[in-house]
Design goal:
By secondary structure, the chain is an all-alpha fold. It is built from 16 helices and no strands. The radius of gyration is 21 Å and the shape is globular.
Length: about 350
């Protein structure tokens, strides 16, 4: 507990300060809403932190600090504030300045337009997260398999040439037919954009890792680290844009939404650095698998929203926590078995 407090005390102070300011200037109701949004964002993004740490551990100390500093600005102001405005402007007759004016001065109308483009947001985020999970489970070099029968089969299937890409394209078909006919064109465009974004970033990252190995670099630097940094930001956007839309179910006040989601973004990044610093993924061998199963479920939940099947936020957040909790428990049991074998030998 002492170690946790030493690591998280800046975030605790910032969180209490922001909550206090919101409550002081905007009242107790606003205080309650911003607290709920903060907790929801942190809960829903626990698996995001695990995936982030998997990428961040390969990056140099400089880029890890960039992730915490510049990355916070990108996450809070660009992803959670500016990007939805740009998307609404791109997909409606409104200009960017008109949408910005609505976001600041007429949040009800802005929320209406944002909900209107929600199918595209869910399609982009859903396919991106689906590919993150699928490419992980179909990675031939994986050492630890958690849900062994399924993960072993997926790992073996990775040997089939181009199967991952065929499965990615095959996903388009059911998702397309889940969608209302009026939204299908926009959703198809979002699916293509999400898939291409992932595949391009994934391909460049692999290429840069080969360059690093050739140059005998232990950590990613330069362009390799920059591409990984951008991958983390797109991953964050895939997790968070749906949360921005969902936040309007609680409040239409953009200040409260930004405060709550911003606190969540800060905690997720600090959680990521904590896991990197303390080598959490090495200690809990199945944690990566648990997080990727959670991501696979989240992508399915996003696709179901296209068919107007909305699950409660408690279920959405709980799925990720259950998978991560079970993966940690399985890791602890495996470590104990291994320790007993070493003592017996």
């Amino acid at each position: 507990m002492k170690r946790l407090l030493l690591h998280y005390w800046p975030e605790l102070i910032i969180t209490i300060l922001i909550w206090g300011l919101v409550g002081w200037y905007m009242g107790l109701v606003a205080f309650g809403v911003v607290a709920v949004l903060s907790v929801l964002e942190i809960t829903l993004s626990a698996d995001n932190a695990v995936i982030n740490s998997r990428v961040l551990v390969k990056m140099s100390r400089f880029w890890q600090l960039m992730f915490l500093t510049v990355g916070i600005f990108v996450a809070v102001f660009l992803v959670r504030f500016a990007l939805p405005i740009v998307m609404v402007a791109a997909m409606t007759p409104l200009s960017s300045s008109e949408v910005l004016n609505l976001a600041i001065n007429d949040a009800d109308k802005y929320g209406h337009y944002l909900h209107g483009i929600a199918p595209s947001i869910n399609a982009f985020g859903g396919i991106f997260l689906f590919l993150v999970a699928m490419f992980f489970f179909m990675e031939e070099g994986r050492k630890y398999l958690w849900i062994r029968p399924v993960e072993k089969a997926l790992k073996s299937a990775a040997k089939v040439p181009y199967l991952k890409y065929i499965l990615a394209l095959a996903t388009f078909v059911p998702v397309f037919y889940l969608t209302d006919s009026a939204d299908r064109e926009a959703v198809l465009g979002a699916l293509v954009a999400g898939a291409l974004t992932y595949l391009i970033l994934h391909s460049i990252t692999l290429m840069m890792e080969q360059v690093n190995k050739k140059n005998q670099l232990k950590k990613q630097v330069g362009w390799a680290a920059f591409v990984s940094f951008m991958y983390l930001e797109v991953l964050d956007a895939s997790f968070s844009l749906d949360g921005v839309v969902g936040a309007f179910a609680l409040t239409n006040n953009i200040v409260i939404i930004m405060a709550g989601l911003g606190i969540g973004a800060l905690w997720v990044r600090t959680m990521t650095l904590y896991m990197v610093k303390h080598q959490t993924l090495n200690t809990y061998r199945y944690l990566e698998s648990g997080a990727h199963w959670a991501i696979a479920c989240l992508s399915l939940i996003m696709f179901l929203k296209l068919a107007h099947i909305e699950l409660p936020e408690l279920v959405v957040g709980g799925v990720g926590l259950v998978f991560i909790g079970l993966a940690i428990a399985s890791s602890v049991r495996a470590n104990r078995r291994e320790a007993r074998k070493q003592l017996d030998s």
